[in-house]
């Protein structure tokens, strides 16, 4: 960050300034700054690199004769599972401990599917505890692949476990059931949690491979980011609101929200992912294959979903404004000081990176 400021002429090169990690962390939090460069996926988009990647991907498909059902995408995203559109209900009084706990109820989830949606893997869900008391000891009975990490973030270890323990077996099982050769190409963003820049991530037989998008092109064409993840979140939010509205327990509204369990969150996310149609998934690839006529993509308009969720939100005691509702739907939520709470671009400090890699 300091190098960037110097390049922009914000401070003179002759000046010297030394800041501790603690000072920088407080400064970053105070002004809502995010360490975008660490993960490489929050900086401005690189259109030229994206166009080159598209050409490379198409050539790879042609050379290997890949079909739509053999090409996959996965991407993780944060979800504040107890956050509602009404700031006054949940977020205005940051001095209330219960309110802070509600805000910090956060998980990371990762959907993965092939282009035509014929093989949708169970969601990967990361919470803050390895063995939460509300979940069974045998996690295999859950409808999601659950793991725990200190801050509910994805890291390389968890991702590799998912790739070799979930993705590869799923592809092989799907291929066997359909009488196909067990092979696949997984498209991933260039995130430090997915690789360290030198890893070759593939199955033991080399038939299930990974291709990484260039840095800073997620917003341009990462399929799951082209409406799929948001559609999952919006469906989850609708289920959360309906649960709170239809709950006939005589309790304060805030208490009902606080009592939402991790198991309920898992079930609602699983249901939301199940409801995502193959057309929605297939349409999310259109930016990558807009000039590749071999792949004819089905596209589904999910505009009505936004209206459904907004209509549901209006039944709440503290009816949010339209702008607040839209921000909430698009994962743009601010605290009472107007600082943006970012849910999609996870940030690793140097200490965090050392503890998880």
Descriptive account of the structure:
- The chain has about 350 residues and is an alpha/beta fold.
- It has a single domain (about 35-355), classed as Nucleotidyltransferase, domain 5 (2-Layer Sandwich).
- The chain has 15 helices and ten strands.
- The strands form three sheets. A four-stranded mixed β-sheet has the order 4-1-7-8, with no helix packed on it. The protein has a four-stranded mixed β-sheet with strand order 2-3-5-6, covered by helices on one side.
- A hairpin with a 5-residue loop joins strand 9 (about 330-335) and strand 10 (about 340).
- Helix 13 packs across helix 14.
- The longest helix has 22 residues, at about 155-175.
- The radius of gyration is 21 Å and the shape is globular.
- The model is unreliable at about 1-15, about 30-45, about 85-100 and about 335-355 (pLDDT under 50).
Brief descriptors of the model:
15 helices, disordered C terminus, globular, DNA-binding, 4-stranded mixed β-sheet, Nucleotidyltransferase, domain 5, alpha/beta, 357 residues
User: What name does the CATH topology carry?
Assistant: Nucleotidyltransferase, domain 5
Low-confidence stretches: 1-15, 31-43, 87-101, 334-357
Strand content: 5-15%
Top-tier CATH class: Alpha Beta
Q: What's the name of the CATH homologous superfamily?
A: Ribonuclease H-like superfamily/Ribonuclease H
Helix content percent band: 40-55%
Shape: globular
Keywords: DNA-binding
Protein name: Jerky protein homolog-like
Domain HTH CENPB-type: 1-37
GO molecular function, one term: DNA binding
